[in-house]
């Protein structure tokens, strides 16, 4: 029994890591090559949810027909979900982090006031891509921010020290936040009964099916399907097309409506 449990855990970890690879390969290609709407940059990443839905709606029912004991249970799906959510966080960090390093370095070399501020902070040079000197070029930063010159290689020698230095700090902050979550979450959930809507959605998607059912209970709820299809319709209409204009966009934020209401009140 213990060996079977270990096998299930390892199997879930393997699927989670494959899902993480999927995120790291598809997300940048979709976002920056195809210039489509982002698919893994929200509080509930679409790509992760789509992967979980494939496992729950397609893979698990097929496995159930073969051998019910081999289907992915709630704990396995939770582990897969968690690994993929971490991969999304890493992906978002690497989308912002190198850009911030290069942009900050470039701005400091072009702006005397910023250069003086950096000099007064007395930060070690290993935290910068290029030397922060006003009026001088920042080749490693400029090649990242603009483009890499033809025939040139990525200057890993310049990138390695700041990536390691700032990366260590970011990893430490993540560990601290994870520790705080382990302390605060049980208190908030069990004693103070605070609602966690995003967590509730994830839990409902991976619940164990009822007896003689193939799918979690939420998938037999008509209200869920109505809401899900409505949201899917809105996002489909608001998706950024690769060419041309999107004249069929459905308003999904309050700000434009509020501004329109205020403008009408002020002009009448």
- Give the uncertain stretches in residue-range form: 257-268
The succession of helices and strands, N to C, reads HHHHHHHHH
Range of strand content:
under 5%
Helix proportion of residues, in percent?
Answer: 55-70%
Instruction: Report mean pLDDT, rounded to a whole number.
Output: 84
Number of helices: 9
Number of strands: 0
Estimated structural class: mainly alpha
The overall number of domains is 2
Distance between the termini: 75 Å
Q: Please summarize the sheet with the most strands.
A: none
Q: Tell me, what's the shape?
A: elongated
**Gyration radius, in Å:** 24 Å
Nutshell version of this structure?
By secondary structure, the protein is mainly alpha-helical. It contains nine helices and no strands. α1 (2-33) packs parallel to α3, α2 runs antiparallel to α3 (74-110) and α3 crosses α5.
Tell me what the structure shows:
The chain has 268 residues and is mainly α. The chain folds into two domains: 2-220, no CATH class; 221-268, no CATH class. It has helices at 2-33, 46-66, 74-110, 112-121, 139-145, 156-191, 197-205, 222-238, 254-267. The chain is elongated and about 70 Å long.
Secondary-structure blueprint:
Elements lengths: L1 H32 L12 H21 L7 H37 L1 H10 L17 H7 L10 H36 L5 H9 L16 H17 L15 H14 L1
Structural key phrases:
2 domains, 268 residues, disordered C terminus, mainly alpha, 68% helix
């Amino acid at each position: 029994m213990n060996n079977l449990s270990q096998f299930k855990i390892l199997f879930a970890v393997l699927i989670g890591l494959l899902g993480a690879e999927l995120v790291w390969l598809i997300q940048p290609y979709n976002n920056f090559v195809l210039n489509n709407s982002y698919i893994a940059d929200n509080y509930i990443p679409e790509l992760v949810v789509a992967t979980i839905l494939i496992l729950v709606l397609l893979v698990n029912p097929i496995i159930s027909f073969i051998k019910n004991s081999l289907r992915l249970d709630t704990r396995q799906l939770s582990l897969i979900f968690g690994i993929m959510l971490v991969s999304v966080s890493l992906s978002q960090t690497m989308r912002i982090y190198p850009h911030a390093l290069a942009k900050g370095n470039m701005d400091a070399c072009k702006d005397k006031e910023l250069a003086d501020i950096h000099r007064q902070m007395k930060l070690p040079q290993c935290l910068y891509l290029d030397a922060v000197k006003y009026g001088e070029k920042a080749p490693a930063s400029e090649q990242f921010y603009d483009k890499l010159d033809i025939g040139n290689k990525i200057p890993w020698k310049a990138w390695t020290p700041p990536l390691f230095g700032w990366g260590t700090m970011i990893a430490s902050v993540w560990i601290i936040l994870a520790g705080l979550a382990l302390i605060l979450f049980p208190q908030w959930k069990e004693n103070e009964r605070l609602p966690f809507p995003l967590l509730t959605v994830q839990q409902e998607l991976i619940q164990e099916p009822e007896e003689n059912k193939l799918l979690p209970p939420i998938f037999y709820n008509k209200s869920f399907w109505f809401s899900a299809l409505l949201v899917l319709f809105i996002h489909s209409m608001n998706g950024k097309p690769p060419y041309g204009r999107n004249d069929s966009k459905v308003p999904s934020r309050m700000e434009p409506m509020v501004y329109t209401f205020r403008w009408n009140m002020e002009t009448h």
